[in-house]
Design brief:
Number of domains: 1
Strand content: under 5%
Helix content: over 70%
Strand order of the largest sheet: 1-2
Structural class: mainly alpha
Shape: globular
CATH class: Mainly Alpha
């Protein structure tokens, strides 16, 4: 592995760990344990719905929807802890080969950074009435940052242009992110009317999105092999 790639991975892991430790140290409280456990269980369940990407050795799951919901439903610490646990589950659930420690740390750290930046972007909308645009901005920030962080490490390891790697690996998942983000916005907006318990009841519908996109990506994988 090139020195540049090692330095980049080290920087991402260091920043992700700093955000995690900082959140837990500064605010270890869990304001609503029942809601946190509910979100955590759903995020873990969503992490098992994995779709293998056609042009890279990796996968995507629906846990990012819960990360977005967590921006509105949970505290900083709860959101970051849920993110770390869900990504670890995604990496290890029915994996053909167990990922190495460095790879797991990088993946967890990259998503923690993405969620933290998305949450910060959403916090710029101080007006409670601006919930929908806040989550749209958060979803956009999360998608761009997470996919760019992953594409950069792949590009550095394989000595390829970052933009080319990003286009080949992540253009096909944009619609998946978009539909998931729409679901997160709908659930969060509905919670303001009927409360979080009723809104959370909508989230098992994530499986329908997973089933639809799994078929779509499977067809794309066949085209790539052809």
């Amino acid at each position: 592995m090139h020195v540049t790639a090692r330095l980049y991975i080290g920087a991402v892991v260091a920043l992700g760990c700093a955000i995690f430790i900082g959140c837990v140290a500064l605010d270890p409280r869990i304001p609503d344990p029942a809601r946190f456990v509910h979100c955590l269980v759903l995020a873990i369940l969503a992490s098992t719905f994995k779709i293998r990407l056609p042009r890279m050795n990796g996968n995507i799951s629906l846990n990012f929807v819960m990360f977005l919901v967590g921006i509105a439903a949970l505290s900083w610490t709860e959101n970051i802890v849920m993110t770390a646990v869900a990504i670890l589950v995604q990496a290890n659930w029915r994996a053909k080969t167990r990922p190495g420690v460095v790879k797991m740390l990088f993946n967890v750290s990259a998503m923690i950074i993405s969620v933290a930046c998305a949450r910060f972007a959403a916090s710029l909308f101080n007006d409670a009435a601006a919930l929908v645009p806040a989550l749209i901005v958060a979803a956009t920030a999360m998608f761009i940052l997470d996919t760019w962080l992953v594409s950069t490490v792949v590009a550095l390891i394989n000595s390829q242009p970052v933009l080319g790697v990003w286009r080949n690996c992540h253009q096909s998942v944009f619609m998946y992110y978009l539909l998931g983000a729409i679901m997160a916005v709908v659930v969060t907006a509905y919670s303001r009317v009927c409360g979080w318990p009723q809104a959370m009841a909508m989230l098992p519908g994530l499986y329908l999105l997973y089933s639809y996109y799994d078929v779509h990506v499977a067809k794309e994988r066949e085209l790539v092999r052809a």
